[in-house]
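Need tokens for this chain, all 411 residues.
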Amino acid sequence: MQGLGGRTLMDNCPKPRHSCRMENTALPPDDLGKLVALRHALHAAPELSGQERETADRVALFLRDTQPDHILRGLGGHGLAVVYEGAAPGPSVMFRAELDALPIAARGGFAHASRRPGRAHLCGHDGHMAILAGLGLWLARNRPARGRVILLFQPAEETGEGARAVLADPQFAQLRPDWAFALHNMPGLPLGALAVGPGPASCASVGVRLVYQGREAHASLPETGLSPAPALAALMADLAPYSTSPEMGPEYRLATLCHMRLGAPAFGIAPGQAEAWITLRTLSDSALAEFEADVAALAQTRAAALGLAVSLSRHDHFNATLNDAQAAAHIAQAGAALGLPKAEFALPMRASEDFGAFSACTRTGLCFLGAGVAQPDLHTPEYDFPDALIAPGVALFAAIWGQVLAGDRAG
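Here are the structure tokens for all 411 residues:
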């Protein structure tokens, strides 16, 4: 099938069907070895958001031998969907992992360390891809008898753009999932411990950049210019009530002042320009829109009172992730069936995850798997996804598929 720009969007390759055996969600040692090798290869060759062509090609090549029915390429950029069809009607279930790495230099010293300066998989997306690829290996031995399983390898999660780009891509209409599931590893929790619940799973957030324009003057005559310094001072005071995280609740608002710049680095010039970068965070998309509007109105009012011009731009917008109650129940039941311990982890997660964009179009379930109590934090130079988490991650996804099928039969 041909699509925009003449790209090959779908490779069709129907295969023989046989029944899906849910009694065994484990992979043989050889498959686990392949997945560890895949993760290490992905970790050594990280690509940033929007640049994940090589990563997607590597994953597609790895999964070709699983004989999927369709491979959909170029979703929302470099996204990849690998589809396994059942012969009979049934639920369409999407499992998602992220392709992109971070613009941070790693410090690890291990053999599979990043070979690309200033870029590294420090959020565990390499491990998430290995888990999702492992589900593909499992499906090669346990093909769906009915319904459809979609493995989505999504681009540009770290910027908040990828999920919405996938949804906006006309090709996504070919997928139309009834359910969408994702996991994220979580350092600080015991290895393999599971955290999930209905309702908000991760916060909505947006970056707001304020740029103030006044007028420079000689440092000996500051009164002849128009300094934006009072506007920055007022902004810090205005944001102070939201600068520490309150209890999670409907009125939850958090504003983090991430960066400020005032004037030029010179002692002879009174400043005429300034900017501030703020991250705003709430529990819902509607609450975020209200918070953003309030901050914009306040900044504009303060600037006008001081005679300054101010412009606003928004960046790194993430939708809130809202777990469907039944989707969360499927995850919890799958974890219980596997004997995964329940994690002591307060939901929702204060950080953002662009998986939330899928909450607007299907029933979503996002869960968190412990990466180890002593594991370095996400987005730190020392972080490395634990290979021991691949097997329970694959088993969890396979068991979730079984729970969805069982629920569909019951319904």
